[in-house]
Amino acid sequence: MSQPALLRGGGWQPLLWLALLLAAALGLAELEGLFRLIEPDSRTVIYGRAAFIDLLGSHVLLVALAAGVSSLVGVGAAIMVTRRWGADFLPLVSQLASIGQTIPPVAVLALAVPALGFGSGPTLFALMLYGLLPILRNSLAGLRGIDPAVLEAARGMGMAPLQVLWQVELPLALTVILAGIRTSVTINIATAAIGSTIGARTLGDPVISGLVIGNTAFILQGAILIGLLAVAVDSLFEQLQRRAPGA
Amino acid sequence: MMVSLRGNRVIPVLALMALALLWSLDFVSVQPNRIAPGNGLGLLAAVGLPWALTLTAALLACALLALRPQQPAYWPILWLVSLLVLQLPLSLAWSIERHIGADMPYARVGIGAGYWSLLFLLGLLLIELQQRLRLARAWLLGSGIALALLLWWLAPQDWLEPLALLREYSSRRSQFAAALASHLGLVGGAVGLSLLLGGAIALLLQRYPGAQKGSIGLLSFIQTIPSLALFGLLIAPLSYLSAQFPWLQQLNIRGIGWAPALLALIAYSLLPIVRNTCVALAEVEAAVIESARGMGMSPTQVFLQVRLPLAMPLIIEGVRVTSIQAIGLTAVAALIGAGGFGTFIFQGLGQSAMDLIILGALPIIALALLADSLFSLLAERFYSGVGDDRAE
C-alpha cells in the first residue's frame, strides 16, 4: 500500500517509460504554448538547433557504445584476474576498481579534453573508462562470491575450465554483473549529458544552451528528456535483473 | 605457494609500461605564451640524457627486484618508487631550467602525457606495494598528504614559476580560495543537512516500518535522475518562487545559484544516509537491546548509549558515500552558477584553456580521495572501538 505505483514491479513499466520518452522527444516541440508561459519574453521557446529525437538518438548511441565496450573489457578483465594464471593481478585490479570509483565522473570527463580534445570521441572515451569501474568491481564480486564447493562439483563432473566458466560461473554471477552494468549506465547517462560542455551531441545541449542564453524553457525541455531517458533505462534494467536466472 | 616462486609479475608489467610511455609520449610541452600552441618535448629532449637514463635505470631496477625468485624485494622497490615520486617536481624544474631562458617572460611549460602516465603508473605501483606489504590505508593517506605539503612548499619557488598550471593558479589565487570555500561549503552544508534530515527520516521509519520500502524506493528514484536534469528541473520553480516573494531574492535564493544546487545535493544525499542508518539501526541485535533494558537503562539511554554507537560504522559509511557523491555533483553545479572548482573546469572548457581545466579537476579529485580516506579511517576506528567494548 505504501509503495508508490511507479516503483512497483511489472513488465509494463519499462514500456510505459519508453513510450513517455518517445512521446516527449517527438511531441515537446509541439507544446509551444505551454513553454511560452514559462518564458514569455523570449523570441523562441522551443530549442531549435537540433530535433530532440536526433539528440536522444546520439545520446543513447554514446551510452550504448560505452556500455558495450566497458562490459566486454570489465567482465573480461574480471575473468582473467580470477583465473589461476592471472591471480597476481587480482589485488591491484580490485583496489583500482574501488579507488577509481571515488573519482567524480565529471573530473574524468574534464581531463579527457587536455588528453584527447573536444567532441564526441573524447566523451565516449571518458564514458568507457569510468563506466568500466562499476562493471569490473561487480564482476569481481560476482565471480569471487561463488561457493568453491560448487566449482569443485562442476570440475568433478568432468567439466573443462571453459565449460565451468560458461555454464556455472557466469550464470551464477550474472545478477551481480547486471547490477554493475546498471550502475555504469546510470552514471553514463548523466555524464553524457554533461558531455555537451565538451562538444558531444547529447540531450544536454538544450540545457547548456538554455543556461548560456538564460532561457528556462530550453533548460526544462532538456531536463525532462534526460530525466525520462534515465528512468526508462533504469526500469528496463530492473526488469532484466528480475528475469535473470537465479534472481 | 606457486605465485611466490616466480616472483611478482605485476610490478615488472607496470614498470615496463611506465618506461614505454615515458619514452614514447611527450614529457613536457613549451608554449611561447598562453595562446600559442605548445611544442611537445620527449623525455630525452626535456631532461637530457643523464636524467633520462637514471629514470630508466630506476624503473628497470624495480622490475628486476620484483622478479627475484622466492621473495620479491618489496621494501627496496618501495624506496625506489618513493624516490621516483619525489623526483617528479625536480624533473619538471630541470626541464624548465633547460628550456626556458630569462628572455622568455611569457613562456609556459605544460605537463605532457608521458609525465602524467608516469605519475599514474607510480600510483599503481604504490597501491600494489601497499597491498603486498599489507600497509594500512592510513599509510597511503599520510604519504599523500606529505607529498601535497611538499608541493605546497615547492609551488611558490621561482624555479617552477613558468609551469602553466601554476601560472593559471597565481593569476587567480583569490578565486581559487573562494572556489575552495564554496565547494566545501556546499558539500558540508548538503551532507550536514541531509544527515539531520536523513537521521530524522530513518528514526520515523523505525517507528513506521510499513513506509520503509516506499520511502527508500522514492529516494532511489531521485538518485536515478541525472544531475544536469535535476538542476534544470529546479530552476523553473525556484525562479517562479523568487519572482513571487521578494524576500527570497534578498536571501539570494533564485533559479540559479546556490539554492537549487543545495536542494538537489540534499535530495541526492538522502538515499545513502537513510538507507545505511535504517540498516544499521535494524542490525543491532535484539538481545543486546534487551540486556541494556535489563540493566535498567531508559529508552533514551538505550538509544544513545547502545544502538547509536553500534550503528555508527554503517552510518559513517553512508556519510562517506554521500560526501564523495556531493563533491562530484558540486562540480556540475558550477553550470548553474553555484561556484566551486567546477567553475574553473567550465571556464577552461569555454576558453580552450587546458591548464585551467586541470586546475579545476585536480582539486576535485584530491577532495574526493581525501574524503574517502578520512571517512574510511573514521569507520575503522569505530569498528575497532566496538570490538574493544565487546571484549570487555
Automatic annotation (TrEMBL), chain A:
<feature type="transmembrane region" description="Helical">
    <location>
        <begin position="118"/>
        <end position="136"/>
    </location>
</feature>
<keyword id="KW-0813">Transport</keyword>
<dbReference type="InterPro" id="IPR000515">
    <property type="entry name" value="MetI-like"/>
</dbReference>
<keyword id="KW-0472">Membrane</keyword>
<comment type="similarity">
    <text>Belongs to the binding-protein-dependent transport system permease family.</text>
</comment>
<keyword id="KW-1133">Transmembrane helix</keyword>
<keyword id="KW-0812">Transmembrane</keyword>
<dbReference type="InterPro" id="IPR035906">
    <property type="entry name" value="MetI-like_sf"/>
</dbReference>
<feature type="transmembrane region" description="Helical">
    <location>
        <begin position="55"/>
        <end position="82"/>
    </location>
</feature>
<feature type="transmembrane region" description="Helical">
    <location>
        <begin position="207"/>
        <end position="233"/>
    </location>
</feature>
<dbReference type="InterPro" id="IPR051204">
    <property type="entry name" value="ABC_transp_perm/SBD"/>
</dbReference>
<feature type="domain" description="ABC transmembrane type-1">
    <location>
        <begin position="56"/>
        <end position="237"/>
    </location>
</feature>
<dbReference type="Pfam" id="PF00528">
    <property type="entry name" value="BPD_transp_1"/>
</dbReference>
<protein>
    <submittedName>
        <fullName>ABC transporter permease</fullName>
    </submittedName>
</protein>
From TrEMBL, chain B:
<keyword id="KW-0812">Transmembrane</keyword>
<comment type="similarity">
    <text>Belongs to the binding-protein-dependent transport system permease family.</text>
</comment>
<dbReference type="InterPro" id="IPR051204">
    <property type="entry name" value="ABC_transp_perm/SBD"/>
</dbReference>
<keyword id="KW-1133">Transmembrane helix</keyword>
<dbReference type="Pfam" id="PF00528">
    <property type="entry name" value="BPD_transp_1"/>
</dbReference>
<feature type="transmembrane region" description="Helical">
    <location>
        <begin position="43"/>
        <end position="67"/>
    </location>
</feature>
<feature type="transmembrane region" description="Helical">
    <location>
        <begin position="216"/>
        <end position="236"/>
    </location>
</feature>
<feature type="transmembrane region" description="Helical">
    <location>
        <begin position="106"/>
        <end position="126"/>
    </location>
</feature>
<feature type="transmembrane region" description="Helical">
    <location>
        <begin position="74"/>
        <end position="94"/>
    </location>
</feature>
<dbReference type="InterPro" id="IPR035906">
    <property type="entry name" value="MetI-like_sf"/>
</dbReference>
<dbReference type="InterPro" id="IPR000515">
    <property type="entry name" value="MetI-like"/>
</dbReference>
<feature type="transmembrane region" description="Helical">
    <location>
        <begin position="356"/>
        <end position="375"/>
    </location>
</feature>
<keyword id="KW-0472">Membrane</keyword>
<protein>
    <submittedName>
        <fullName>ABC transporter permease</fullName>
    </submittedName>
</protein>
<feature type="transmembrane region" description="Helical">
    <location>
        <begin position="138"/>
        <end position="155"/>
    </location>
</feature>
<keyword id="KW-0813">Transport</keyword>
<feature type="transmembrane region" description="Helical">
    <location>
        <begin position="326"/>
        <end position="350"/>
    </location>
</feature>
<feature type="domain" description="ABC transmembrane type-1">
    <location>
        <begin position="180"/>
        <end position="375"/>
    </location>
</feature>
<feature type="transmembrane region" description="Helical">
    <location>
        <begin position="175"/>
        <end position="204"/>
    </location>
</feature>
<feature type="transmembrane region" description="Helical">
    <location>
        <begin position="256"/>
        <end position="274"/>
    </location>
</feature>
